[in-house]
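Discussion board: Methods & Data

I've been asked by a reviewer to show the raw model output for two of the constructs in my manuscript, not just the figures. I'm not sure how much to include, so I'm pasting the format here to get opinions. Each protein appears as its amino acid sequence followed by a line of discrete structure tokens. Is this the kind of thing reviewers expect to see in a supplement, or should I convert it first? Here is construct A:
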Amino acid sequence: MSSKPEAEPSWGSQYRLIASEKWKAKSAAMGQPVTDALVDYAKPSLGMQVLDLASGTGEPAISLAVRVGAQGHVTALDLSADLLEIAEKRARTRGLDNFTARQADAHALPFPDNSFDLAACRFGVMFFADPAVSFANLRKALRATGRMAFACWREPRENPWMMTPLQAVYRHVPKLPQPGPEDPGPFSFASQQRVNRILNEAGFTAVVMEPCDLSLDLAIALAP
């Protein structure tokens, strides 16, 4: 079941829904290697309470729900209620009773402290408007032994999949402003130094960030 606030944020929600419906099959095929790598890296175990941030249409939340079993539970969090409805339908199709969708913002998590054993995010952390606030809130929502695992894009020069279309845009729109190093955007978490600083200030320790060479170029970070 879903829990929804009174007003849904309007930015991006409808566009994400349209894109999701139009490219659902392609997106699923393209994103599965990333999901598999992230879930394997996070090492979910039976009985865990898991939070998936920016879950969209349900991944990696659904894959995590399979791994934690009936004894565990996964909460899929996203700004868009429409996308979460798709996630719920997918979870029901899989017969997953340990899956809940929750519309909320990572900057104001609606959970008591010490609620989760594991948090995950696939390509969402880069777009947090205030990552310091988001990760500090997340650290509080995790138990003392909890950890966070997320996937993010690596450096632009190592990522032709993302840079090729961006370079085409810049050729035709030369005055388009370039994002700053601290601005939200696809590569805002590419720097190991910045990731360490943000997560350490939020209370995470022993942060590990490893390159992962898949069909999509990304990095995975783990922070206990």
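Construct B, same format:
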Amino acid sequence: MNQIPRVTLPELIRVFLFIGITGFGGGMAIISLTERYCVHQKKWLTIDEFMHAVAFGQILGPFSLNTATFIGCYLRGIAGGITAAVAFMFPSFCLISFLSWLYFRFHELPQLQSALKGTNPVIIALILVAAISMGRSRVKSLTSWAVALLAFSAAAFLKMNAIGILVLAGVWGVGRTYLKREHA
């Protein structure tokens, strides 16, 4: 069993405030940044524990926030979960509040409309880079690549939601384990 490191609440605030301030591009980009800090730099969790946080985080609502909450709870219980979530959300709350005010005040300016059109390709590129980075660190065998490709295909082409994909992956994993035991 992995020993859970003792992390102070101010340390959780510092890390998740930093992730909230520097994280750009939404879900996968922020997940990649969270992985870099919490798994590789701080070594608060193993990659498996982090991937469980991401999987659980995708069940309901915004999964980058849910992942931060999961990590905080894992490290410091309910107080840690609340602390990590608030620290993570605070920069976004402030920035979105300010940008909303600017938008509704100046939304008819052609310069603002042009600037907003240019952000979509950047965000898509950030998501792809984060997904590739996470895939390289976690997907190593041919079977893992096949499952990842099937999950991507189910989401992209069949429009299957994350819960359905997670349930199917869980059934596949249990079935695979059962078959290995039967043949052993």
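Answer (T.O., handling editor elsewhere):
This is acceptable in a supplement if you add a one-line summary per construct. For B, something like: Residues 141-184 form one domain.
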